[in-house]
Specification:
alpha+beta, Aspartate Aminotransferase, domain 1, about 30% helix
């Protein structure tokens, strides 16, 4: 696990740390080619510089977000809005994580990608990469 992400997780309460440790280790295992780092104060994984998946601590729990998740066609993911293609799920305890769903979503995150890397250059317009 990336040292910055490990440090992020260690600052959380034990229940949240357990969730984040499982998320980080599963993401690392399922997306070994991804680069991980703290980006905008949260753990995020990138493929070719494009953000793919990340998580953050919010009031409802730990939010796992997929930047292109709206196109995964998965009932377990909540679509954020109309302009962007993100979708997410919240976890309050580690037992909330359906590991098979998580692995399937991670597979889809490498297969279905919108170009967030160049969104500023394109003045807010997204283009499909895959």
């Amino acid at each position: 696990m990336n040292l910055e992400i490990k440090t992020f997780n260690e600052k959380l309460i034990p229940e949240d740390k357990e969730i984040c440790d499982l998320l980080a280790s599963t993401i690392d295992a399922e997306l070994p080619e991804a680069e991980s780092k703290i980006w905008h104060a949260h753990p995020v994984w990138f493929l070719a510089g494009n953000p793919i998946v990340g998580y953050s601590k919010q009031k409802p729990g730990i939010r796992l977000m997929f930047w292109s998740g709206a196109d995964f066609n998965e009932e377990g993911l909540n679509i954020g809005g109309q302009k962007f293609k993100d979708a997410s799920v919240f976890y309050q305890q580690v037992s909330d994580i359906e590991i098979n769903d998580l692995k399937r979503w991670l597979q889809k995150s490498s297969e279905i990608q919108w170009d967030y890397k160049n969104i500023v250059k394109r003045k807010g317009q997204l283009e499909r990469l895959r």
